[in-house]
Amino acid sequence: MVDIVTFGEVMVRLAPPDYMRLEQTHSFNVCCGGGEYNVAVAAARMGLASSFVTRLPNNPLGRMAANKAREHGVDVSKIVWSDSDRMGLYFAEFGAKPRASSVLYDRQDSAIANIEPGMADWDGAFNGAKCFHVSGITPALSPSAAAATKEAMQKANQHGVKVSVDLNYRAKLWTQEEANRCMTDLMQHTDILITTEEDCNRVFGIEGEDYEEVARKLYERFGFEVVAITLRENPSVWFNSWSAIVLHGGTIYTAPKYDVEIVDRVGGGDSFSAGFLTGYVEKDDPDYACKLGVAFSALKHSIPGDLNWCTRDEAEKLMKGGGNLRIVR
Amino acid sequence: MVDIVTFGEVMVRLAPPDYMRLEQTHSFNVCCGGGEYNVAVAAARMGLASSFVTRLPNNPLGRMAANKAREHGVDVSKIVWSDSDRMGLYFAEFGAKPRASSVLYDRQDSAIANIEPGMADWDGAFNGAKCFHVSGITPALSPSAAAATKEAMQKANQHGVKVSVDLNYRAKLWTQEEANRCMTDLMQHTDILITTEEDCNRVFGIEGEDYEEVARKLYERFGFEVVAITLRENPSVWFNSWSAIVLHGGTIYTAPKYDVEIVDRVGGGDSFSAGFLTGYVEKDDPDYACKLGVAFSALKHSIPGDLNWCTRDEAEKLMKGGGNLRIVR
Amino acid sequence: MVDIVTFGEVMVRLAPPDYMRLEQTHSFNVCCGGGEYNVAVAAARMGLASSFVTRLPNNPLGRMAANKAREHGVDVSKIVWSDSDRMGLYFAEFGAKPRASSVLYDRQDSAIANIEPGMADWDGAFNGAKCFHVSGITPALSPSAAAATKEAMQKANQHGVKVSVDLNYRAKLWTQEEANRCMTDLMQHTDILITTEEDCNRVFGIEGEDYEEVARKLYERFGFEVVAITLRENPSVWFNSWSAIVLHGGTIYTAPKYDVEIVDRVGGGDSFSAGFLTGYVEKDDPDYACKLGVAFSALKHSIPGDLNWCTRDEAEKLMKGGGNLRIVR
Amino acid sequence: MVDIVTFGEVMVRLAPPDYMRLEQTHSFNVCCGGGEYNVAVAAARMGLASSFVTRLPNNPLGRMAANKAREHGVDVSKIVWSDSDRMGLYFAEFGAKPRASSVLYDRQDSAIANIEPGMADWDGAFNGAKCFHVSGITPALSPSAAAATKEAMQKANQHGVKVSVDLNYRAKLWTQEEANRCMTDLMQHTDILITTEEDCNRVFGIEGEDYEEVARKLYERFGFEVVAITLRENPSVWFNSWSAIVLHGGTIYTAPKYDVEIVDRVGGGDSFSAGFLTGYVEKDDPDYACKLGVAFSALKHSIPGDLNWCTRDEAEKLMKGGGNLRIVR
Amino acid sequence: MVDIVTFGEVMVRLAPPDYMRLEQTHSFNVCCGGGEYNVAVAAARMGLASSFVTRLPNNPLGRMAANKAREHGVDVSKIVWSDSDRMGLYFAEFGAKPRASSVLYDRQDSAIANIEPGMADWDGAFNGAKCFHVSGITPALSPSAAAATKEAMQKANQHGVKVSVDLNYRAKLWTQEEANRCMTDLMQHTDILITTEEDCNRVFGIEGEDYEEVARKLYERFGFEVVAITLRENPSVWFNSWSAIVLHGGTIYTAPKYDVEIVDRVGGGDSFSAGFLTGYVEKDDPDYACKLGVAFSALKHSIPGDLNWCTRDEAEKLMKGGGNLRIVR
Amino acid sequence: MVDIVTFGEVMVRLAPPDYMRLEQTHSFNVCCGGGEYNVAVAAARMGLASSFVTRLPNNPLGRMAANKAREHGVDVSKIVWSDSDRMGLYFAEFGAKPRASSVLYDRQDSAIANIEPGMADWDGAFNGAKCFHVSGITPALSPSAAAATKEAMQKANQHGVKVSVDLNYRAKLWTQEEANRCMTDLMQHTDILITTEEDCNRVFGIEGEDYEEVARKLYERFGFEVVAITLRENPSVWFNSWSAIVLHGGTIYTAPKYDVEIVDRVGGGDSFSAGFLTGYVEKDDPDYACKLGVAFSALKHSIPGDLNWCTRDEAEKLMKGGGNLRIVR
């Protein structure tokens, strides 16, 4: 019995070391990542019982992806295994101003893109669960993945499991029109929306004077239980600032803005989702959830790889004012 | 104007260091390789003017593959560039007895698999060339790649360019029946056949008492100008023995058998092809060609990666009896 | 509910790369290992549901050790966590003839050495289990660890869980006299004994003409259900031969002798234990168990680290004659 | 037939990883670099047909240097090979404020220092070329290298090839007096001068209120067709700002000032030269050339090694306002 | 005959590369460090004849620690060797804002913690020496180490060797009360005190309006010959500012405040001690000593590992205004 | 006061990892080595007080070379420092059968090649010493180095210090005729000659039926006190056999022949010299000296780098029959 179930693609990530360019490198650092995968791992590190559902090829790369979730205590028993499909990959290149970091996806025809409704055991997965999380990437993978996403959300609704969606628009996967049509449909099954101001505009055409207005417009159009918007400023590649706001029951909750020195910002938003959902599911306290999510995800930026290797204890300490940057001895 | 043109797939190769397994690794060493690519590079190192024809995605991985041929002086001006396809990849795992080394291909839907007749500038490529080399892997990639291979061979015949084929059967790509049908058809355009006893049996059903008999049966069935068969013994993963025989004008030519300590045997056969074709094209001397090919490819086993970083001078020295294993100072 | 429970120490292992000596190195490769830990992981890879019981400090090193078992699917919910003790470490140095590989332990006062009877939840751990495995290292760690080992064996006897012991004598931890006294006492709770000829002599003073005689003497003195003896020959550091015999119901079962090229032989014996116990627990077939254990552990020698990253499928293929050492494509 | 020919030394560069000091390191990262070599490669990446002329020892280090230019498509057929000389080397150490990065040269008696007039095939090299580029380093290598530089410039003048000089003063190679005498002489053959305010002062004793005045004084003294001055500010080791101005036909052209996070600033000026010359040679547009050169070279600072692995497309995007530092997906 | 003798623990330090977390890493960079060890090495690099006294296990790790001091010319002949104790270790994790760097000690029961009065040859060590340096860490290791520290200080007093103490409070090793009692006692043997405002408060309960007042209060309470206080500001993890003040003969001496880009700040304070003591012992000039100490230790922040691989020449150049951050060629 | 003084060149060694070729590598492992340097370090590890005399540039590379001798306890106070010369380098490439390992020297004009008689403090160096060791490489570096070598040998004779010479012929440095003339002259100052059968033939034209005869002919021609000849067989690159014989007082002493698995054979002969001289100087026992030298140098082959990181204890254990290749725990 788990607290949170997430569903989506996990890819093997290949990243050149030392700011080398893809074309230049002679080695890759290897890890695994993907929006909902990162959330499942981060939720497990926050202390939730989490389960990750995906479809993987039954080969060493697929096993690596499952292993590395299991390493953090994520339940992988609901993963669907395929004997023939390929593993999705992505190549990540780290930059320095004025060269932004970048990502080259190689995820066509991956096992999860070929998932179809009926393949996953949603009744088993949702039995006793409190929350289901998926991002806008999963339905963008393929029409059958979109159908499987809708199936999962409907099942979650039937099981009384709260549905959280990270809007996450990926221009390489579909057009804004396609995203709008599909995501608008899925919003009827959604209780919790997590997004950025920009994605909100690209997918739903919603703009506002400020983050609060965007949150309120989302709330008005779709009637979510709670909306969270993450806020990032990019003055350079190595330094960002990071925060979020949450709208719940008409009230806006905020968190401190953290200055972050960036080792690897991939998965920052996913860490927010996990921290926020942990606080929200555990304590039903949107203020605490927002602050926990922001502190936990601020820490993520300091860690190489998609995953957040911090502990809940570290996030709570930071929340409570642990801004001391002396060496911890 | 080039001496030799080769045509086939080049993949980015990802290999864990230090005998680690794919499922276990946290980094990959990166290089590029593929049968005909390896031959083009090795021929360039032998001193031939060589050109490599393939189809590559116009992204950093595709550029890397072209660059690394160009690094050795291979002409890459006839490569066909694609704005949408993906790069073929393969994962290589190095073993130790009793665990054999192994390879996991991820090459579906690569740019070269989607090549079609008419895409490559064969008239430009073959202008003044002496030899065209392709392996049985290229037509196995897809029906359109098979058609493009046939087109290339016909063009070579028209240009009076000798056609060399390395039979190279890949069970992951097609069945023995498919291979038999396609390769039998292509043999009519073939002047030089390079193969192993085992592939000969798997593709053409030809067996013999010994290597000589196999060579003679091949000769009888297809009427090749020359046939070369490489001979490998695998007493362990780290130690092999390696040689070849050549049948030309009814005469069998042999080379010494080398004991090889194996750093990386991938591309060993391709180095033989390059060394053999160099000797054959340059001097029309099958005995010299066989000995040069074997010496050059024996050296390949000591070098990491698909490519043979030896020089012609080193191969010639070994041929002339340089079995001294003291440190060269 | 698990098939097999193992109990013992897991250490963080620090090993210089590239045959460097400890005194010389500027980096360490990190992994985790320990006799019973290795068995738990290897059993999980064989397809058993396995659980590992130990005591770990609640710090990043302790969490790493638990994570890396969990990565392979081992249940770690019965691990006892300590807020104050230290993590056991060991330093491993890889050699080349005539310099043998060597190990420097730094395991004094580790959390597991400070375990005491009553700390672990044996009733929970053994509920529904089929087999309990421990080695002679665990009781050697400290008197309280010896008492905890005896407690575990008694509990296993009460739950009807078969008790397997790997005799494993460690001269750095106790004298032969101490080992003899303690292990002789523990043998009354033991159903399955796994050992080497040498350890048998050092702990019990049992010698024989050959391995069979040693097995029979063990059987006669202690009345085990089954005895397994592993056989290693060390002609050099990089090449060994490896096999085992099993005595069950008066019959000796043997396995083929494998020549192994050695990447890392640490954990070879543990892989045998896991493979043997898997076959024995699943099928009650000592012949199959012996052959499976030897094939699986022969493969271990080719893999860096204490753990066996092979699959059951690979072990079964090797058992069935897969001696082909060509590249698997 | 090439667009641009460059002439100078290429060295093998040895750099400790991770900010280690030379005295401290146990490994070196290897690449190749040198002012005019960097320009040849960067021009090839900009899309020009470029050729690099130097003199190299015919050993693995010399071949590596030629290979790595060829990797980017640079023509290396005009390189002069020596059977006896040594390869120039340099050691690079990366710092952090207040420790500046530093370089230790080991280039005495390199093959290129021993070049003499008559050795290189300038008529072949300049046939059809548009531009010849050399820096103040080449004549500083030795008197015979200075004579060969003068020979090359005269030949370029004869062939109607525009001559570009990067003033580049190296205090380790010659005194300011020597530089003044030699460079003043060479200026009569020079059409395009690229320099910094500081080098201008050190070599020609020219100072000014600001960069513009320096450019105008250079123009007045030597009558160049065009003068470019690069502008760097060093507030710290890891952050610089970077720009340039160009004086042409009496008009000053400027480019935006870029803030750059520094991975490796070696070769930054060379990238400017290549970008500037590309724009100038292709379009005869000093404004575009200045902006292209600055954008392309700003990107260089983010890439390890002497070479600029960016593409022209990336430089053009940055020029057109691509200051977005989000991850490119 | 040496100038300076230091006494304390040296540990083997294990640090994950690339900002990885301990729990996450698969390798450690290895070096050796410890407060007084770092001072001994840094003093040797400053040109003093220095000797380091400790107690080490006679195994490869103990030898590594002695070797790496000897590498810099430190005399290690007074080290006490143990055949049974263990080597102290520490794990260092590098962070990025808002995650501070941190250290996990594993130093219990190290050979030096088990040192006892009478074990070290203090008469031999102090023969002709000018200065003895120890920190507040050494007496905190164990009661016997505290007794040995007191013995050493008394011996130093007898030999007329000036005693320098770095107050260095370590909360993991003892309480503030224990530290207060022990260190107050040791102050009677102390001539030179080096500390920070914070440690002064934690150990002696001394606070002040500013650094000067703290220095004066220390002077008043204990009557030291000279007091030095280092000043660090931590606006982020990667950027700090660094300086110090010295109180001597009633006068306050100051040094410039350096902005430092941080590669590794461990050992920064120790470098100050070494630089300061060098200046003070050599020239009896507190102003020069303060400035030399600050310049030398500012440079330390740019170097990986505990040790300062700069030269005295570099420190002097920085003192004299070498703020130029261009590449040193 | 030292036991043994050695004199010669130390170079920084740059070696590609993982059997990569020089032309192919993107990194070098760094260490320091040179015949007499290796002997000085190995003698220090054997327990002798040793001193190394050379001439080094006063830059980070020169300091690294001195540091790394000092790390092992070698006295470096007699090294002559130069402010202008360069450091000798060598590039080492590791092979696999049939590709032998090889070395590319880059040592022209190194500081030691420019040494001249009168530069080194021989009276200081030899004060109280027992043995002086030099190889045939040092006089081959340059005429002035040959003169300095002769000066050193004469001074050693005057001080009653026994002179040991390792004949070591390097064809890259001089012709056999040059070597013959110079070395014949130096033999009059030589007490102990260490060589191989092959070098003996190349330098002195001495051949024999077997090793004994060669030793006897050397003895007869030059009247040495003792002659040692090392014996290597190269059946492959990764496996050799290794031994030596000693002729003293008309008697031949032999050592067992060791099979060695080769990690790095560079410095094997130097380790023999050090072990042999240790035994000979300490105990005047040629039998013990021969056996100690062979055991110690057999171990060297298992260690990366020029230096022998074994201990005397390990060498003595091997001598006494420690052929057990099990893991040392």
Mind explaining what this structure looks like?
6 copies of one chain form a homohexamer. Chain A is an alpha/beta fold and 329 residues long. The first copy, chain A, has a single domain (4-319), classed as 3-Layer(aba) Sandwich (UDP-N-acetylmuramoyl-L-alanine:D-glutamate ligase), CATH 3.40.1190.20. Helices cover 36% and strands 23% of the residues of chain A. The first copy, chain A, has helices at 35-45, 60-70, 122-126, 137-140, 143-158, 176-187, 197-204, 211-222, 268-283, 286-300, 312-319, and strands at residues 4-7, 11-15, 27-33, 50-53, 55-57, 80-82, 89-93, 102-106, 131-135, 162-166, 192-196, 226-233, 239-248, 251-254, 258-261. In chain A, a hairpin with a 5-residue loop joins strand 12 (226-233) and strand 13 (239-248). The radius of gyration of chain A is 18 Å and the shape is globular. The model of chain A has no long low-confidence stretch (mean pLDDT 97). The A-B interface holds A 14, 21-31, 59-61, 63-64, 67, 86-87, 89, 91, 93, 104, 106, 108-109 and B 14, 21-31, 59-61, 63-64, 67, 86-87, 89, 91, 93, 104, 106, 108-109.
